[in-house]
Design brief:
Blueprint lengths: L1 H7 L8 E6 L4 E7 L2 E2 L5 E3 L3 H16 L5 H9 L4 E4 L2 E4 L1 H23 L10 E5 L3 H14 L9 E2 L7 H15 L1
Parallel strand pairs: 1-7, 7-8
Antiparallel strand pairs: 1-2, 2-3, 2-4, 5-6
Helix pairs in contact: 1-6, 2-3, 2-4, 4-5
Length: about 180
């Protein structure tokens, strides 16, 4: 994802960056400093998209007395819908979704800030790349929070690729193409 974003944006040098891969079952944070992966400033969290759907389902189960499965909410989230049908009745999930997106984003921001604290003082994060299946779900909230927490100097430094699920493989494809030319 890092290579793909740099190459497609015309960047020809390694920049200090954070890649936040928000997947179904975990969120992985990778930090690049002076073109090198920084193991001490990288990590993983269990909070991810399935955390969102599980928490939403639990809350909606308590509120409605009906069984709502996290898997069913996944489809609702992927389609960008704000309501779910349960037992022939429609329930608005927008408020609970917004609440848990904010909550989980705070956890991601806290861990990112903690990891950045291990970088040398001259590190200057120029880009944050949000990738993975949860990038569209958490992207806007994380952009705003990263700016407010001074992880980036402007929200424009946070990049969500057009296709965050395939961005990683597109980067590998670019690497392979560049190796074949050499």
């Amino acid at each position: 994802s890092y290579y793909y974003i740099l190459k497609t944006s015309g960047e020809n040098r390694a920049v200090d960056a954070i890649i936040v891969d928000i997947g179904h079952g975990s969120t992985d944070i990778l930090t690049v400093y002076q073109g090198r992966l920084m193991r001490t400033a990288s990590g993983s969290l269990e909070e991810a998209v399935d955390t969102l759907t599980t928490r939403m389902a639990r809350t909606l189960n308590e509120q409605t007395g009906r069984i709502i499965r996290p898997f069913d909410l996944m489809k609702t989230i992927e389609k960008g819908l704000t309501a779910v049908m349960v037992g022939g009745q429609q329930y608005d999930v927008s408020e609970v979704k917004t609440y848990y997106i904010q909550n989980i984003s705070e956890i991601i921001i806290d861990e990112t800030s903690r990891l950045l604290g291990t970088l040398p003082p001259d590190a200057w994060i120029e880009k944050v790349i949000l990738t993975g299946g949860g990038a569209h779900v958490f992207g806007d909230t994380l952009k705003e929070m990263m700016w407010k927490e001074n992880i980036v100097k402007s929200p424009e430094e946070v990049v969500v690729p057009k296709n965050p699920v395939m961005c990683n493989s597109q980067g590998f494809e670019l690497i392979a193409a560049s190796r074949m030319k050499a």
